[in-house]
Amino acid sequence: xxxxxxxxxxxxxxxxxxxxxxxxxxxxxxxxxxxxxxxxxxxxxxxxxxxxxxxxxxxxxxxxxxxxxxxxxxxxxxxxxxxxxxxxxxxxxxxxxxxxxxxxxxxxxxxxxxxxxxxxxxxx
Length: 124
Hints:
By secondary structure, the chain is mainly α. It has helices at 3-22, 25-34, 41-45, 52-64, 84-115, and strands spanning 39-40, 68-73, 76-81. The chain has a domain at 3-85: Winged helix-like DNA-binding domain superfamily/Winged helix DNA-binding domain (Arc Repressor Mutant, subunit A, Orthogonal Bundle), CATH 1.10.10. A three-stranded antiparallel β-sheet has the order 1-3-2. Strand 2 and strand 3 (76-81) form a beta hairpin. Helix 1 packs across helix 5 (84-115). The longest helix is centred in the last third of the chain and has 32 residues, at 84-115. 14% of the residues are buried.
């Protein structure tokens, strides 16, 4: 088993939930707001043209994905960004970035050889 396959097996469920939560633009805006500081559900609902309950459902989806944690103080629910799932998703994406960077570098070198051009950065 390769490292890549092992990572997919370990992270599949977490990645599925993370990417599903991030697929919605409202949830991405909520996460962007939470980057600066924690906020109440009411604070988060303010900029949206939707009901409090609709925003609360978006927050619940973010919680289920592990992207937001909630604490209750009296009647207020405070939400904060939980960055760990985003770091895992970034790591997964980075694997593909390396893969494509290597392929694109090889393609560039091949095309330069075909044209007889020198590689960027001087002579090699």
